[in-house]
Design a protein that fits this description.
four-stranded antiparallel sheet, 2 domains, alpha+beta, 434 Repressor (Amino-terminal Domain), six-stranded antiparallel sheet, Jelly Rolls, 10 strands
């Protein structure tokens, strides 16, 4: 897998204020949309009423742990809590040139995330490339997880539990991913396929 170097963000007063305002607006919006009082949100999140009140007024800079508990109370991820990708545009683009979307990249396998990272709580969408004779072996995911694999180019063998299926270009397979499962390149050329994971 390729190593990625990340630049350490520089904190400024304006960036902190902006982040607090985003969180302030988001928590207030979600609480009202769910018809919750501050007391009810405090009970479900484990965050004190006074802290929640300060957050909604933009007077607090909560820790990651506090932000996580608030997100859990709404049944969403931290990314979904602090990020509003649809607020400024009706289209969200995942750029092919963005190397941060490479989940794996080596001589045998390349996996690129095609879905926005904040969506990966419920659905994941990947482009996979497997070299000849290479395979991608996976342990069981959470119960109820399923995968939908479509072969764009090449030949594949899909194994889920004790079941084996052969796929050619244009074929799709829908299978249980809460069992041991594997995708193999069964051809002599690079296998290109698209994988949707749902849970």
């Amino acid at each position: 897998m390729t190593e990625k170097k990340f630049k350490k963000p520089t904190k400024t007063t304006s960036s902190v204020d902006q982040a607090s305002q985003v969180l302030c607006d988001r928590v207030t919006e979600l609480r009202k949309n769910n018809n919750l009082t501050l007391d009810q949100l405090a009970t479900s999140s484990g965050v004190s009423r006074s802290m929640l009140s300060q957050i909604e007024r933009g007077q607090a800079n909560p820790t990651l742990a506090v932000t996580f508990r608030i997100a859990q109370a709404f049944g969403i991820t931290i990314g979904e809590l602090v990020d509003q990708p649809w607020s400024t545009s009706a289209i969200e683009v995942v750029y092919g040139s963005d190397t941060s979307n490479l989940f794996r990249c080596d001589n045998e396998c390349e996996i690129r995330t095609l879905s926005p990272l904040h969506m990966e709580k419920d659905i994941e969408f990947y482009e996979q490339r497997l070299a000849p004779k290479a395979s991608l072996i996976s342990a069981p995911h959470f119960e109820g997880t399923k995968e939908l694999l479509t072969v764009a180019s090449g030949q594949a063998t899909v194994i889920a539990g004790e079941t084996v299926s052969k796929l050619s270009t244009g074929d799709s397979a829908h299978y249980r991913a809460d069992l041991n499962h594997c995708i193999e390149n069964a051809g002599k050329k690079t296998l290109v396929c698209y994988l949707v994971v749902t849970s």
